[in-house]
């Protein structure tokens, strides 16, 4: 039987938003991307901190991140990548499940390159507030996210 949802901390990620899986990890499109191609990679097992990953999970997570980063950079005609991990609540981690942000970067996408980290933090805080309280959301639809995931599945072998 196919998986309908993937656990991401206390949240459920619909399978249509997931575009790559291994035995240990999965990658999915972002509900509120900071830049085009902003995706997340995380272990299937709910792990709160990087230090709690097994060696196999750590290797798999970074192997997928490296592979997808290269493919997303090419797909989005980018020249660079930002990889971001917030490891623990005081580091800005809003979902207590290890995850790596992959963000394809282009010249001029942010006036100051480091502003992207503040944008990520703001998006995560905003998402957490919206998920905790049932307010009208401006998130992407499941259909929009599924369409993006379908595009990425084409190049993930």
Automatic annotation (TrEMBL):
Q: Which UniProt keywords apply?
A: Coiled coil, Hydrolase, Nucleotide-binding
CDD domains (alphabetical): FHIT (cd01275)
Positions with a binding annotation for substrate: 30, 86, 92-95, 101
Coiled-coil regions, chain positions: 113-148
Under the heading SUPFAM superfamilies, the entry gives: HIT-like
* Positions of the record's site feature: Important for induction of apoptosis: 117
InterPro entries cross-referenced by the UniProt entry: Bis(5'-adenosyl)-TPase_reg, FHIT, Histidine_triad_CS, Histidine_triad_HIT, HIT-like, HIT-like_sf
> Looking at the keywords, is Transit peptide present?
no
Any idea where the HIT domain is?
4-112
- What is the active site of this protein? 99
Q: What is this protein called?
A: Bifunctional bis(5'-adenosyl)-triphosphatase/adenylylsulfatase FHIT-like
């Amino acid at each position: 039987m196919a998986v309908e949802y993937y656990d991401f901390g206390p949240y459920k990620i619909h399978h249509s938003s997931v575009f790559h899986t291994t035995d240990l990890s999965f990658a999915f499109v972002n509900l509120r991307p900071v830049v085009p191609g902003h995706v997340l990679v995380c272990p299937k097992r709910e792990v709160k901190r990087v230090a709690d990953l097994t060696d196999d999970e750590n290797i798999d997570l970074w192997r997928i991140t490296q592979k997808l980063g290269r493919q997303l950079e090419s797909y989005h005609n980018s020249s660079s990548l930002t990889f971001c991990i917030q490891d623990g609540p005081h580091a800005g981690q809003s979902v207590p499940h290890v995850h790596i942000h992959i963000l394809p970067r282009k010249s001029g996408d942010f006036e100051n390159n480091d502003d992207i980290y503040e944008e990520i933090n703001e998006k995560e805080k905003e998402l957490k507030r919206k998920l905790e309280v049932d307010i009208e959301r401006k998130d992407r639809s499941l259909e929009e996210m599924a369409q993006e995931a379908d595009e990425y599945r084409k190049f993930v072998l």
